């Protein structure tokens, strides 16, 4: 009897062990399958139109290597990106007034409005003199004199707004009206720290992206009236003779100025990216976040590029992974 009871117990134990083994195997397979699932990709965050790039994966900490920059004494030339904002050509309809073509439709509207205001002001002056003379002879009323004065005053007020917009763009309305035929105007942004080093009335070298092998001579006309309160940059106007009309409004150029010895920051060449004629670097802000910063550059000394504005001492600049940062920041 005891043997009869022992056999079923062994069989039940065997069955139990087999079942437990199957369950263990299934659980192990599920765990392996779960481990084999690929991790969800953590996409970087890009904000403020590409100015800031933040990576959400801590594993990327070591991918983007950075290097602190420092101020040192150097002697070199200062360069700045520029753009042709206006060209002066002969007018077919009005031989007494040259035609100015701008790269910005808003500036075209402002300049055209100024010309119209000047015409109206001359007309209203003549009309006011006529009405005043008639009033003195009893042929016009005081009301008519007041109306004539109001028209003239309103026109003089209206022209101020358009003049201000041109000046903020670095242009001078009076000089534009008298601008030489077959000439162009360039505008470049200069750090306020360089104003004392660049003399108006002097000459400068200009190279255009469209004509990389040709060096043009520009005349340094004048600085703009306003220093940008955020970038601390001031606009500089440069004129160049354009007898063959080969230089067009909207063209990009690089302007070179001779600068005496001073203390400047230099960055490795590989840290610099150029987009539409402007130079940028990427500054490390946190472990995996970077800020795009526009810089004004000068000569290359060995593998270092001089930076005249946009950086401060001890800024940490990306020197590897820069092309990836550029693609994320600018969208290509």
Feature tags:
33% helix, Elongation Factor Tu (Ef-tu), domain 3, six-stranded antiparallel β-barrel, disordered N terminus, alpha+beta, single chain, eight-stranded antiparallel beta sheet
- State which percent range the strand residues make up: 35-45%
CATH architecture heading of the largest domain:
Beta Barrel
Structural class: alpha+beta
Number of domains: 3
Please write the CATH class name of the largest domain: Mainly Beta
Residue-averaged pLDDT: 85
The shape is elongated
Q: Topology as H/E string?
A: HEEEEEEHHHEEEEEEEEEEEH
How far the N terminus sits from the C terminus, by CA atoms, comes to 86 Å
Low-pLDDT segments, ≥5 res: 1-10
Radius of gyration: 35 Å
The total of beta strands comes to 17
For this structure, the CATH topology of the largest domain is conserved putative lor/sdh protein from methanococcus maripaludis s2 fold
Enumerate how many helices there are, as a single number.
Answer: 5
